[in-house]
Amino acid sequence: MLFCPRALLTALLFATLPGCGTTYLIQAASGEWHVLRARKPIDAVLADPHTPQTVRDRLTEVRAARDFASRELKLPDNRSYRSYADIDRPYVVWNVVAAPEFSVNPKRWCFPIAGCVAYRGYFSERRARAFAAGLAKRGFDVALAGVPAYSTLGKFADPVLSTMLRYGPDELAAIIFHELAHQLLYVADDTEFNEAFAVTVEDAGLERWLRFNGQADRIERYRQERARDQAFIELLARTRARLARLYASGLPAWQMRAGKREMLAQLATDIRQLEQHQGVHVSVYDEWLAEGLNNAQLASAATYFDCVPGFQRLLAQQDNDLTRFYATARALARLPRAARHARLCRQPSSDPASGD
C-alpha cells in the first residue's frame, strides 16, 4: 500500500488554501510525522533487555528478510525497514474505498504532487469512518479496511511497524518485499499497476526466501494458500464483470438496483460454498460478508489483483529472472495507462465512469 511520500511538503505548500482537501493533507502529514518520530534502529531494539521476546524474534526475522530483499531480490538497499516503531494501535492507516451505486470502478482522489489514487488513507479510524459515512450518505458504496503497512516510496526511511508483527514469519517477509517493490517501481496515477507489480514481487520473493532458508515444505503450503486466494479473487471478478454489464445495460435505476441485490446475494452464497469446497475456514470471508458486499469491495479487490496474472506471465516470459522482469516492467510503465492495462489487466465490461 502506498501513502503520499510528500504529504508534509504538500500540506505546507497548500496550507493556505481552503477546503477539506487541506485538512486531509494536514492529517496525513501529522500522522506520518508521528510514525517517523517513533522510529528506533532495529539493532538498538534488539539490544534493549526490556524488548519482549516476541518482538525480538520478529525483528530478527525482519532483519534477515530485509537483507535478503536487497541482496537476492535486487530491491532497494536503503534505510527503509531497518528501524522499528511501536505505534500502539491495530493498524497504521485506515483506507476508504468508494464506488458509485451503479459502477464497479473506484472513485479516485487526486492531490497536488502525489497524483491520483483509488483510496483515501487516514491515520485515525474515527476520521476514516466519518469520511466513509459521508460518502455513503451521498449514495456511494463504501468499504473501509485497516492497513498494517505502507510505503513512502523511499522518500522517508519507512520503519517496521508494530502493526506488522501480528503476522507470521512468511507474511511478515512478504510485506517487506511488497513495500520495497513500491520503492523500486511506481507509476503516478495507476494504483492497479503499482499494486499488482508489488504483489507479483512479493509472491516471487517469498518463494525464493523460503527456498533460501531450506523450507521447501512451506513453499507448497504457501502455493496452496495462494490457490485458495485465487479462487476467491476469481469469484469476485466474475461478479464484478456481471455487475459491470448490468450497469452498462441502460436499464432503469430500480431494475439495476434489484439486479445488483440479487447478484450480491448470490456472491455471498457462492463465498460460503467456496469455503465448504475448500474445507478450510477463512476469516477473510467472514470479514467480507460482515462488511456487506458492494461495488467498493469489489473495486478494492480489483485494484490489487486484476493485473497480477499479466505480471506473472511477464515474469515467466523472463524465465523468472527478476532483473529482466524489472526492466520489462519499467518499459511497460513508460506506456500510456490504457496501453499498459490492455497488456496486463483483466478488463470487465465497461460501466459508467466513477469520476474523480
Give a written overview of the molecule.
This protein has 356 residues and is mainly alpha-helical. The chain has one domain (7-344). Helices cover 59% and strands 9% of the residues. It is built from 14 helices and 8 strands. The protein has helices at residues 7-13, 20-37, 42-47, 53-71, 125-137, 169-184, 191-212, 216-247, 253-278, 283-291, 295-305, 308-317, 322-333, 337-344; strands at residues 39-41, 83-85, 93-99, 109-111, 115-117, 120-122, 141-147, 160-161. The strands form 3 sheets. A 3-stranded mixed beta sheet has the order 1-2-8. The longest helix is centred in the middle third of the chain and has 32 residues, at 216-247. Mean pLDDT is 89; it is low at 3-20 and 349-356.
Question: What's this entry about, in short?
Answer:
It contains 14 helices and eight strands. The chain has 356 residues and is mostly helical. The protein has one domain (7-344).
Gap between N and C termini, in Å?
A: 20 Å
Could you give the order of strands across the largest sheet? 1-2-8
Order of helices and strands: HHEHHEEEEEHEEHHHHHHHHH
**Class from helix and strand fractions:** mainly alpha
Output mean pLDDT.
89
Instruction: Give the strand tally.
Output: 8
Q: How large is the count of helical segments?
A: 14
How many structural domains? Answer: 1
What percentage of amino acids are in beta strands?
A: 5-15%
- Give start-end ranges of low-pLDDT stretches: 3-20, 349-356
Alpha carbon gyration radius: 21 Å
Main β-sheet: number of strands, strand sense, barrel status?
A: 3 strands, mixed
Helix content: 55-70%
Question: What general form does the structure show?
Answer: globular
